[in-house]
Amino acid sequence: MSSKPICAPNPSFNRAREVRVSQDRSYEVQISGAKISDCLDTIVQWLDDKPALVVMTPTVASLYGMDLVARLEKHGAPVSAQILPCTESSKTLAAVELVCARAAELKLERRSLLIGLGGGVCTDIVTVAASLIRRGIRHIRIPTTLIGQVDAGIGIKGAVNFNGRKSYLGCFYPPHRVLILPHLLSTLSTDHLQDGIAEIIKIALVRDAVLLAQLEALPSHMLSYELRTNSSKAAELIWRSATGMLDELEPNLYEDKQSKRAVDFGHTFSPLIEAASGYSISHGSAVAMDMALTSILAEYCGLLSVAKRDRILTLLTTNRLPVWAPELDVNLCREALHAATLHRCGELNLVLPVNDGGVHYISSAGDITDPMFAHAVAYLKTLGRASTRLKPIGTEL
Amino acid sequence: MSSKPICAPNPSFNRAREVRVSQDRSYEVQISGAKISDCLDTIVQWLDDKPALVVMTPTVASLYGMDLVARLEKHGAPVSAQILPCTESSKTLAAVELVCARAAELKLERRSLLIGLGGGVCTDIVTVAASLIRRGIRHIRIPTTLIGQVDAGIGIKGAVNFNGRKSYLGCFYPPHRVLILPHLLSTLSTDHLQDGIAEIIKIALVRDAVLLAQLEALPSHMLSYELRTNSSKAAELIWRSATGMLDELEPNLYEDKQSKRAVDFGHTFSPLIEAASGYSISHGSAVAMDMALTSILAEYCGLLSVAKRDRILTLLTTNRLPVWAPELDVNLCREALHAATLHRCGELNLVLPVNDGGVHYISSAGDITDPMFAHAVAYLKTLGRASTRLKPIGTEL
Questions:
Q1: A18 to chain B: which residues are within 8 Å by CB?
Q2: Are strands B52-56 and B113-118 parallel, antiparallel or unpaired?
Q3: Pick from A176, A393, A377, A373: which is nearest to A285 by CA?
């Protein structure tokens, strides 16, 4: 090519264009006191003749999952089933890949659906898989654990653990629908409910004095009994807790609007407690310890009366939630403040409960001293020795 | 537990709550006639002292990528480099995982960044990785190929191949910034530019008569020469094409608003041509054949004059783009209509060019008969024998 370029190179050529990316979606969270086998028409209607893959755990499959799939098939819905072990250690990209592989095999396309029928790990894996398949297909979540019904299964987050880092990979990806069936809790043991009970108490403490009063009005251990017997009272408590959680989440679903989040109450020290125990302490137990610790700090800071602090501690122990473990020491507390500051983009925003039922945010790690931690830890240690320490559930949810 | 539940189970308990999920973001696409080594200040400013991982191909690394990283480091930016083979066969979830693993190793957190410095495969892998890490971190794309600069690297889509299915897994995930540097094209061979030239011609045909006239005004083969010599003229053509593409994409970035997309011109038969050749025919070559085919169909349907049809065919062949290959037969055409109908959620929406420079959509596969395909294929076969057939690029981009 010998001809000269028509124009010479021009380093000063500079242009820019803004691209606006807007998205408005919505999804419906629904609760029903009915049995899952009585919800067939609803689910069939949601599927609208589109192919769907129901992902469930082995336990759920044998209890009612495979039965549901068979009934949906009888109703003419083109559904397939995938049984997936769902424990914290199998909450991996490999599990997501298994779901994607099954979806590819079934030739699921843009209008197809995934259904996550299981606990938080199951719905997390399904959420991430749905976000990736064909750049995002619809998914329905039917959480089968209490924590799934009031917390893990109702928002837009999904994540898996990666290279030893908890929830390092994931997505913000709204479901198509969420169906909460308190009846499913009747197959769970009392221990299985504890994680969710901790989250219900959290919501009551940070935003709902009525829910708090309802919880306190129940006789000792009665909450888990109500939940397992699928009473109307239990359904009301779950719905109140779930919608309270959604009210908190909705204005900041992508967690990009602000780093002050009331629902972070109980979630500053708990990640390190869980990790320090090698995940032998369950999430709900760690959250309970975190709430107990921050309640004592709040009292120490003059934000909470001694009476209110003791009401919180009593509510936790009455519901068989632990308030202390050997992992919870001053060093862990200090480290947790640094980790949370990093995690929340430079601002600690430690959530402390206050007298009127709202919350107060501590913005800097320097505002909490080691003697304050030492005081709180020592107090909990004394209290904790008298209370139960729960192990996490061994079976898959 | 012997006490009775306070309330009985109540199957008629039903409540529902709508959750609104809104997101408004924006990103800037910028073009500069400068060399990449003269853009250090700009990139350093974008990084804002946050840790960043620059992902690049081996070719880019040796040409200017590692030099860029060294210069950024000298400017005090906390950047690391990752060299990743980026071919169509390595466009996999495993490649995404490699980037995520490096990110985890470097402890990249929510405010960290990825930089994709490479062709479409590289920026696709980086986009998917960025969407997953900590549920989404920012990423900057610096596309190093022409197709990256006018098409693959400027929108919000990222994808990888999975279990033999092209782009089966991916995301819609906007970049933080896109930097288009036409100067980077100077290291590419003419063959490397062909894919991008096909997409520039596409944009000219579906929406930009001025761009079309500019392309037609260039002497034979002159476009690739302009592009490789980084002339101002080339930068203007690239910018015109890129912004034309963005104008088309912007109202429907998530492809959920409508399935009539002018930018699908050239992208109905081409996926099957590529697949049928075992990907030995490059994307741009397949797009060129598709545009040639649909132009003949458009003339046959009375939408395009013979003169305009021949202008299109001449523009393609002048730019050394192929218009026919043995893979392109009537069966493939018929299959492509079915596949596209499925892909576009039940509506074919085949894009045909029309006389005035706009497009016409054929909504049903039944509107194109096999004799029409036979006529078009025979015409192209005759024409194609006289024109070049390009092989895809063997080296990594």
A1: 26-28
A2: parallel
A3: A393
